[in-house]
Amino acid sequence: MSSLKFGIAICTLNQLCLDFKHNLNNIIKSIEESIEAGASIRIGPELEVTGYGCEDAFFEFDTVYHSWQVLAEILKRNYRDILICIGMPILKDSSLYNCVVIILNSKLVYIRPKNRLAMQGNYRESRYFTPWNDGTQGSMCWFEVPPFITEINLQTRVPFGDGTILKLNHRIEKEDFISSINGFKIGFEICEELWQSDTQNSRLFGTRGCHLVINPSSSYWELRKLDLALNHVKSATSKTGGSYAYVNNIGCDGGGRLCFYGRSFVMENGELLQMASKSSDDIFDLVNVSVAFIDPINTEQFRLQNGISIKSCTIGENVISFDSEKSPYDACESFANISNINVISVENVEKIFSRDKISTQPINYQNFLSLTSEEEIKRYCSLWLWDYLRRCIDGGIKGFIVPLSGGLDSSSVVCIVYCLCELLYRQVFVVRNLNVIKSLQSIISINDAVDLTPENFCNRLLRCCYLKTKYSGQESLDRAQSLANLVGADFQVIDFTEIYQMILDKTPFKINCDSEIVTVQQQNLQVKS
Question: Would I find NAD among this entry's keywords (predicted)?
Answer without folding.
Answer: yes
